[in-house]
Amino acid sequence: MEKIYMLDEYAMIALVTLDSFLIIIVLLLGAFVKLEGYILSLKQEIEFLSKDNKMLFQSLSKENDSIKKSIDSIAKEFLKEQMAHENLYKTTDRAKELLETMDMMKEAVMQNAQLNAMITQSEVENQELINQNHEIQRMLGALNDVSHQLSTLEGSRDSEKIEKVFRNIKRQFSDFL
What pTM does this model have? Predict the structure, then answer.
């Protein structure tokens, strides 16, 4: 009778141990599923930022075309004005000298203004692209870090280590959410 009682105790201990392992496995699977969801949402955010970056590039390309058309229009007007000035040049030598000086000054001012506007616009757009690229690099770094941390958990049964890793991952992604 005493042997049966001892067998029941051993069976009970084995059952409790088996249940503990099953609970740990279920908790790990739940954590992996949750992390997979975080990773998926980060990938979607990266895709969204890439699409936004492409749309910005297309918009800049359209603005560039518009600027080129405006410059062409200004050049045509300038040619018309230059032809009118040439007619005046023929009438008087002094007027010719004055008009040449005025034309050079006018052209220099116009070119300077156009270049300044283009430089300012390019600097703003470049800064926006740098900011977006920095954010994407931060997200990729976080994803790589999570991947590394998860790889350290493979085969691990230390629940404290697992909880510590999950807290670190949650802390990293809290910046993005």
Answer: 0.34
